[in-house]
Amino acid sequence: MAVILVIALLFTAGCAAASMVRLFYAVVATPIDPSLLSTSLRAAKADLPRDSLNVLDGLLSSVPGADWERDVVRALAHPADPRSALVGEAMTELDFRTRRWARVPRVCASLASSFGFLLATVALRVGLSDLVGTLDPSEVLSVNAAVLDAIDVAAVGLVGTAFCVAIQYRARAAVGVRLAGAERLVEVLESLEVADGGALAGAVARASVDPLHPAERTESGLSPIV
Fold first, then answer.
1. Distances (CA, A) of 25 to 20, 52, 79, 213
2. H/E element holding 224?
3. From residue 93, how far is each of 66, 90, 187 by CA, in Å?
4. Following DSSP, what letter does each residue of 102-140 receive, concatenated?
5. Is residue 225 included in any domain, yes or no?
6. Contact at 8 Å (CB) between 201 and 52?
7. Minimal CA–CA distance to 217: which of 176, 174, 186, 184?
8. Is the distance from CB of 124 to CB of 147 less than 8 angstroms?
9. Which of 8, 45, 46, 101 has a C-alpha 20 to 30 A away from that of 184?
């Protein structure tokens, strides 16, 4: 019976781990939080003219993995005709990044519950397989123990289901915040007026933080990840 419970725990842990990967993809789709960067640019009054986009591009080049941000900056440096298409392409790329493994938590939730009930049935079958004839008091206790073992196994699956569902909703919220922040960032960069390289450097530095840092998540509209 213990073997069945261990199998249930391992399977549920695998489902939880796969769901956490989905949350990771949703939260760290870009190394710089677009919401923080747009807020920092507004606060620093560093809405740049188009000829200063190269400054921002240079600052972003020092941030590992900031290729999406640089694509947006370079797209906005183009004339009006191709600019819309290039910005749209960048937003499509961001949407693709944030939706990687989007169905995994839902599938894992279904698998965890189904596999949990399957193993619970197996546990119940194993526990009752040796009981034959009329039940005396000792056999009644054996039946109760078998039922409790089956409930424990099913509970493991249900816990995994609840965890995966929670991750699904959290990832969905993170994606919404990330995409909304990206749209605000594009709006800020499109309304360029003043150039200030120092203010730019500060804005990029404030937005280039650990994507799982509680402060960033709070300012971005999500509660800290604990």
1. 9, 31, 33, 15
2. none
3. 13, 5, 18
4. TTHHHHHHHHHHHHHHHHHHHHHHHHHTT--SS--HHHH
5. no
6. no
7. 174
8. yes
9. 101
Residues 6+ apart with CB under 8 A from 175: 26, 29, 98, 99
Picking from 166, 163, 165, 157, the residue whose alpha carbon sits closest to that of residue 10 is 157
Residues spanned by the domain of 136: 2-205
Instruction: Specify if 215 maps to a domain.
Output: no
Structural domain contains residue 214: no
What CA–CA distance (Å, rounded) separates 83 from 50?
Answer: 12
> Model pTM?
0.69
How many domains in the chain? Answer: 1
Calculate helix-pair angle for 197-207, 34-43, nearest 10 degrees. 150
104 is a domain residue:
yes
